[in-house]
Amino acid sequence: MVYEGNGEGMLRENSKLNPVSIYAETKLKAEKEIAETFDNYLILRTSLLIGFGLNHSRNNFHVMYNKLKAGESPKLFSGQYRTPFSLLDASEIISQLVKSDLKEIILNFGGSERVSRVELGELLCKIAGFDKGLIEKIKISDIPGFPAVKDVSLNTEKLRSFGFKQKPLEKAVEEILINEK
Question: Distance of CA 34 to CAs 31, 93, 126, 162, Å?
């Protein structure tokens, strides 16, 4: 959310920064403070982490899953794009990153596939056997005052250039569901 996200898609680490919310502004300020204070840092910019939280924490994916499982309709954005990244994959790669020699670097930290939340919901329905007709498609403009960022999909070539690989989205969602059971 620190990027301009105007629809150019697959944002690189050096893409134009323009946070459109207090949340995004604080993230960017924290990045700058860390870079100015420390010489051994690694900043990971995420786009959309998916999976099931621990200790009663929940993210949008978890809420969507619970609603679909209960036969309820999740409201999902159709015109906003992200690169969802499994919490399982993320934790695995973070474990490898802290053992690496990388430092003083900012990395886009997301999946490799660009999808809308509706497309993610439809994929979840396909894999879990839920009714995709339950998905209520909405636009960002349907929510007054919501920060209108059209595309925050991340180009993760830099991450992969260091040998770190993300699982394909379908395989990642399958793995999330297997680990939930």
Answer: 5, 21, 41, 22
Q: Which residues contact 124 (CB under 8 A, 6 or more apart)?
A: 61, 64, 65, 68, 130, 173
Number of domains in the chain: 1
Whether 137 is in a domain gets the answer: yes
What tokens appear for 87 in the block? 């919490």
Global pTM reads 0.91
Give the pLDDT confidence of 30-77 residue by residue, as tens digits: 999 999 999 899 999 998 999 998 887 888 999 999 999 999 999 999
pLDDT band at 117 (very low <50, low <70, confident <90, very high): very high
Q: Look up the CATH number of the domain holding residue 168.
A: 3.40.50.720
Element (H, E) at 116: strand 115-116
How far is it, in rounded angstroms, from Cα 162 to Cα 158? Answer: 7
Residue 12 domain flag: no
* Residue at 91 is within a domain: yes
In a domain, 11, yes or no: no
